[in-house]
Specification:
heterodimer; A: alpha/beta; Rossmann fold; six-stranded mixed β-sheet; four-stranded antiparallel β-sheet; B: mainly alpha; ABC transporter involved in vitamin B12 uptake, BtuC; 15 helices; 0% strand; membrane (chain B); ABC_TroCD (chain B); Zinc transport system permease protein (chain B)
């Protein structure tokens, strides 16, 4: 995975140009432009319902913008089909998957599916899976059912799945909801290490403290872009208050 | 679907005859003597068992994916629209003096509805629940109207489709079931990984470049095939049971692969027991099979609640400890789950 990150240094991982998106006639993302460089640890913050998840879905090509353009690894995001470069842990993913009879190993193996949808797994595939399990310290629990793990352990399963994919971009939507404080700290340390190894990370997080501590770049939105820059500047500006204040205004406007 | 079954009738009949009479039939005769069950020597019972065994394979094979996507209702919906398909076939036969097998029109209608239902689920404004209920009752309504529209002349034989029948399982319908068992098993084997990924985490699967839409379509079409080919034995009203109940019984499995295998195993026990009981006591086959399935489910539930660790459950000391404290304190004090945990974690 290091090889590919070296190759792509010059190319932005994600480029969003004046992207807008609305559900029916309710705009959720309005004229947002930003660029994410390889190796970035981007913290995406904003009040509830501010369009964070939608913006990420636009970036991953899961939705198409009504206007503007979104590029993922240089290609139009919606047409991007190199699935093995991207790993996404959606909001509540761990909770939803909690009921199925799936072992830790099975779940992590899914990370290799984009590489090999049919046929036998190669030695490389198996090594990637083993390495991923080791990396997140789940080697002891490979045969456990995912539903029987604690919130923090489950979270690590999903990270291991992303690692097994050997993806260049890791996208996490509020990954620590329902995870205890201790596991949360360990989890962010792990993300920090991964980022140090060259994986680009986009993290949606409502805990502003966590984001400013770990991220190298902050994007604050509430439909519109309120801030895009480094955490130090973000703390000094009024962007956060503005973004949350705008929500208030929108709510009042609606009534 | 017309093509496959038609060509099956044309090309595969001779080898299938050989299989049914000389191979399977001979085996069943030996089995009849060994077990002291003369019923196994009757050709119609042999066909019934073969049909049941096939249904026991393909039911859970597709059902496991459906149940874990929480789409079990789709099986029931498609079964009821397949009934409309049967009625359409009988109606067209009656009106145009043709002799189409109603099962063919049922296949076409069910596969068509399957794709329609998938569209409704994806783009419909109404909730999935509501649209399924509408399609289910709509299909059944269409069936009943078509039947009465032809002076009741075609009402004959409808009972067999509604409640299923073992005695009337023809060679052609067993042939169709054997063929479908091959087809469905092959499809699930080839598409196992994307189907599992889509079932487990659809959003991540999409982000990883797997076409969730196409695999959803595949899943509903496979469901339609299973439901229609099993309909003649199980009956329209009860056929969905074999896609759901054995899967629920096998839910204690640890891995997904095991749960598939356990589902098939449970279904086989269910159908063989059900068919045997139904013949022995002259009961409706479909109903007997479903009640047997539910009986096994209740047994598995009791078994799990009593805390007897089976091979399928993990056997850590922690789990036993939890069970113990559960019995002592009267509540399940398992590991703290910030998300509240889910029910089956305590089983």
């Amino acid at each position: 995975m290091n090889g590919t990150t070296v190759e792509t240094v010059s190319e932005a991982v994600v480029t969003v140009e004046n992207a807008s998106f609305a559900f029916a006639d309710r705009p959720v993302v309005d004229d947002v432009s930003l660029e994410i460089e390889p190796g970035a640890f981007l913290g995406l913050v904003g009040p509830n319902g501010s369009g964070k998840t939608t913006l990420v879905e636009l970036m991953l090509g899961l939705r198409r913008p009504d206007s503007g353009a979104v590029r993922l690894f240089g290609e139009p995001a919606h047409a991007f089909d190199d699935g093995e470069r991207v790993a996404y842990v959606a909001q509540h993913a761990t909770k939803a998957a909690g009921r199925m009879p799936v072992t830790v190993r099975e779940a992590v193996t899914m990370g290799r599916y984009p590489h090999r949808l049919v046929g036998r797994f190669s030695e490389t595939d198996r090594r990637a899976i083993d390495n991923a399990l080791e990396r997140v310290d789940l080697t002891e629990l490979t045969d456990r059912r995912v539903s029987r793990l604690s919130g923090g352990q489950r979270q690590r399963v999903f990270i291991a799945r992303a690692l097994a994919a050997e993806a260049d971009l890791l996208v996490l939507d509020e990954p620590t909801v329902g995870v205890d404080a201790e596991s949360r700290e360990a989890f962010y340390d792990l993300l920090h290490d991964l980022n140090a190894n060259g994986i680009t990370i986009i993290l949606i997080e409502h805990d502003i403290g966590v984001v400013t501590n770990h991220a190298t770049e902050i994007v604050c939105i509430n439909r519109e872009l309120y801030f895009d820059g480094d955490p130090e500047t973000f703390v000094e500006t009024n962007a956060l208050a503005d973004a949350y204040g705008a929500e208030q205004a929108v709510l009042e406007h609606d009534h | 679907m017309f093509g496959t079954t038609a060509s099956l009738t044309l090309f595969a009949f001779a080898p299938f005859d050989w299989f049914l009479d000389d191979l399977y039939g001979a085996f069943m005769e030996v089995l009849a003597r060994v077990l002291g069950m003369p019923a196994l020597e009757y050709a119609f019972m042999q066909r019934a068992y073969l049909a049941a065994i096939c249904i026991g394979i393909i039911g859970p094979l597709v059902g496991t994916f459906l149940v874990h996507r929480e789409m079990s209702m789709i099986a029931d919906t498609l079964a009821h629209t397949a009934f409309a398909g049967v009625a359409v076939g009988l109606f067209v036969n009656n009106a145009l003096s043709l002799s189409l097998a109603p099962i063919h029109s049922a296949l076409v209608v069910a596969v068509g509805t399957a794709l329609l239902v998938e569209l409704l689920v994806q783009y419909g404004d109404v909730s999935t629940d509501t649209s399924l209920a509408m399609v289910l009752t709509g299909g059944f309504a269409l069936g009943s109207v078509l039947i009465t529209a032809t002076d009741g002349g075609i009402a004959v034989g409808i009972d067999a489709y509604l409640f299923g029948s073992l005695a009337t399982v023809s060679k052609a319908s067993v042939g169709l079931l054997v063929f479908m068992t091959g087809l469905v098993s092959a499809a699930v084997a080839v598409a196992y990984r994307p189907l599992l990924y889509v079932t487990f985490d659809a959003t991540a699967a999409r982000a990883a470049g797997i076409s969730v839409t196409w695999y959803n379509r595949l899943m509903v079409v496979l469901t339609a095939l299973v439901v229609v080919s099993a309909m003649q034995v199980m009956g329209v009203i009860l056929v969905a049971a074999l896609l759901v109940i054995p899967v629920a019984t096998a839910d204690g499995s640890r891995s997904f692969k095991r749960s598939l295998l356990a589902g098939v195993l449970v279904a086989e026990i269910t159908v063989v027991t059900g068919v045997t009981l139904s013949y022995q006591y002259g009961l409706a086959a479909g109903g007997t099979i479903v009640l047997t399935g539910i009986g096994l489910y209740v047994l598995s539930l009791v078994y799990r609640r009593l805390g007897v660790p089976t091979r399928m459950q993990h056997r850590t000391g922690r789990w036993r400890l939890n069970k113990l404290s559960e019995r002592i304190h009267g509540d399940a004090t398992a590991e703290p789950k910030a998300d509240g945990g889910s029910d089956d974690e305590r089983r």
